[in-house]
Q: What sequence folds into this?
């Protein structure tokens, strides 16, 4: 499938750090971190295919396809190596990128994400949900997801509004792409860049044990657990999330030098 040009925003200077949002969000999910990090690095915030201001395409949005869109953005910006930070689905994209383009990576930030593929029942649920969304829109996601994402009630309405704006075609394409993603455990040992694994202790979407396991299996991995956070650490604990990312930026810079 043809690549798409990703809409993006950028801030600051220094080592390039590309932030990949999760499902079914867009780049604005990272906005609260920009003032906390923009003096430290060059922050690049794309909207993945179909989300935010990047137009949707037909078909399945496989994680490798989304990773190759990011590679295309790096090529356009003439960025040889970047640190990639991915939230949840964005983390699946980071792992696909790491496997396909290891030489373009300076560091990895895996936020509320996992290396495991879907179990068969989860895969079936996703495919069913994708068909329903393709027919009837994303309302079901906007209504059901926010309270599972965070226990911080003040975020429920903004998240509901954000999800409601996601095009159904993109949501269905990404669900189908996540359903077909492979287990990434085998490739973790080949990731030789600094790798932060950041997890909310209260995450209801991705179990904490999966973050712990991933951090253990990454040769240069370390784990930061945030007790006050669920699935959305960048919203729930922005200061602590930024602090963990500063450490990643520091390590990625050292690796680049
Ligand atoms: C996400 O937040 O990106 C998704 O909920 C991840 C998933 O469904 O596996």
A:
């Amino acid at each position: 499938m043809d690549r798409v040009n990703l809409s993006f925003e950028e801030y600051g200077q220094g080592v390039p750090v590309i932030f990949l949002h999760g499902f079914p969000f867009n780049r604005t999910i990272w906005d609260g971190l920009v003032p906390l990090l923009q003096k430290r690095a060059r922050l690049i915030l794309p909207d993945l295919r179909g989300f935010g201001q990047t137009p949707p395409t037909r078909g399945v949005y496989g994680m490798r396809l989304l990773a190759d869109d990011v590679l295309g953005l790096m090529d356009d910006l003439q960025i040889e190596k970047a640190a990639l930070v991915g939230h949840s689905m964005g983390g699946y994209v980071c792992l696909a990128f790491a496997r396909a383009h290891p030489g373009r990576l300076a560091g990895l930030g895996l936020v509320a994400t996992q290396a495991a593929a879907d179990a068969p029942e989860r895969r079936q649920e996703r495919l069913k949900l994708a068909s329903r969304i393709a027919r009837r829109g994303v309302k079901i996601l906007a209504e059901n997801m926010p309270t599972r994402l965070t226990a911080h009630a003040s975020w429920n309405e903004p998240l509901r509004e954000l999800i409601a704006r996601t095009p159904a075609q993109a949501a269905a394409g990404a669900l189908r792409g996540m359903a077909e993603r492979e287990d990434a455990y085998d490739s973790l040992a080949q990731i030789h860049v600094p790798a932060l694994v950041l997890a909310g202790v209260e995450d209801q979407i991705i179990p904490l044990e999966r973050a712990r396991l991933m951090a253990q299996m990454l040769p240069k991995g370390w784990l930061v657990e945030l007790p006050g956070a669920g699935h959305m650490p960048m919203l729930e604990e922005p200061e602590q999330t930024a602090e963990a990312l500063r450490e990643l930026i520091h390590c990625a810079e050292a690796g680049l030098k």
User: Anything to note?
Assistant: The two ends are 36 Å apart (CA to CA). Residues 145 and 160 are 8 Å apart (CA to CA). The pocket of D-malate is lined by residues 22-23, 88-89, 178, 205 (CB under 6 Å). The mean pLDDT is 96.
